[in-house]
Amino acid sequence: MASMEPVSSWNSNSVLSVMELTKEPMTVVPKNYIRPDQELSAPSDYSTLTTIPTIDMKKLAWGETSDLELEKLHSTCKAWGLIQLANHGVSSSLLEKLKHEIEEFFMLPSEEKMKYKARPGDVEGYGTIIRCNDQTLDWGDRFYMTLNPIQKRKPYLFPELPSSLRNTLEAYISELQKLAMTLLGYMGKALKIEIKEMEELFEDGMQSMRMNYYPPCPQPELVVGLTPHSDATGITILHQINGVQGLQIKKDGVWIPVNFCADSFVVNVGDVMEILSNGAFTSIEHRVTVNSDKERISLAMFFNPKFEAEIGPVTSTLSPRNPPLFKRITMEDYVKDFFSRNLNGKSHLENMRIKSGESTLAA
Ligand code: OGA
Ligand code: NI
């Protein structure tokens, strides 16, 4: 049975899909989606926007250009907290296949998708769990799941995906794992963190993914596709699957739309990277806005240190003039803390910060 209920009968623990909601003609969005808190303006014109600096993987690798590109990587991660990654090496044929498979998945009948529905008390699975009648909701369907370590994959999620999607995702994951490790190595180099130290933290680390589908909305200026947040990760590699814009970042207190190039990935500096770098790199608050004509589809891959790792500012980033700004904590406790909260800007990272007067030894 599909777990879709009309808005008037939302029950606690039912799983909601905006895609289903929008199958019925609609001119006014249900009140749970309206976000007076969100400083939304008229739909943005993405053609005239700020373009985030592009980092070229080939230039990073190539002797003569690598130093300059590394400097650019450093300054962009510091000032913007996200980069556009060009020449990432993932083949366009694989990306085409991925687009096709993910679009097919979201087009499946609701009954099929609800096989993967989020279960009460769990963060993984498809759709949004309704906890109470007045819950504020995002205008998007998402499917979140753990990928690595493989034994942490939920048996009823990834292994049960349609085989063509699963195989394509496996190929994509393996490409992205290589890419993420290489990029993390360069980030480490830019921060003067030994490659060995980065490998010890991230090799075979915790990895997860979120597929997002944001349907067109009759009143896009009233809703958000994804609530403002910074990613709790080491890094996130975001692929904007069908080339539809919508990502915004909050820079110097102002929301600005991000104009991206369709061939590039967007890479977010996550909170963990801000911690490891002792604040030299900053994670950036971002959100997704929607539009009235075209759905937006994206795939975010999250790369983290391993569960057993302890995270905190890496020794080489510290000096008497540069004392630790963040506490040390195991990845396991960090994740527990994260999932016990609602998405709320950078509040999770703030909780990791050493307050003035607090002993760093006790942390
Ligand atoms: C995320 C995210 C952006 C997007 O999943 O954490 O920020 O464009 N996604 O879907
Ligand atoms: Ni994000």
Automatic annotation (TrEMBL):
<dbReference type="InterPro" id="IPR050295">
    <property type="entry name" value="Plant_2OG-oxidoreductases"/>
</dbReference>
<protein>
    <recommendedName>
        <fullName>Fe2OG dioxygenase domain-containing protein</fullName>
    </recommendedName>
</protein>
<dbReference type="Pfam" id="PF03171">
    <property type="entry name" value="2OG-FeII_Oxy"/>
</dbReference>
<dbReference type="GO" id="GO:0016491">
    <property type="term" value="F:oxidoreductase activity"/>
</dbReference>
<keyword id="KW-0560">Oxidoreductase</keyword>
<dbReference type="InterPro" id="IPR027443">
    <property type="entry name" value="IPNS-like_sf"/>
</dbReference>
<feature type="domain" description="Fe2OG dioxygenase">
    <location>
        <begin position="205"/>
        <end position="305"/>
    </location>
</feature>
<dbReference type="InterPro" id="IPR005123">
    <property type="entry name" value="Oxoglu/Fe-dep_dioxygenase_dom"/>
</dbReference>
<keyword id="KW-0479">Metal-binding</keyword>
<dbReference type="InterPro" id="IPR044861">
    <property type="entry name" value="IPNS-like_FE2OG_OXY"/>
</dbReference>
<dbReference type="GO" id="GO:0046872">
    <property type="term" value="F:metal ion binding"/>
</dbReference>
<dbReference type="Pfam" id="PF14226">
    <property type="entry name" value="DIOX_N"/>
</dbReference>
<dbReference type="GO" id="GO:0031418">
    <property type="term" value="F:L-ascorbic acid binding"/>
</dbReference>
<keyword id="KW-0847">Vitamin C</keyword>
<keyword id="KW-0408">Iron</keyword>
<comment type="similarity">
    <text>Belongs to the iron/ascorbate-dependent oxidoreductase family.</text>
</comment>
<dbReference type="InterPro" id="IPR026992">
    <property type="entry name" value="DIOX_N"/>
</dbReference>
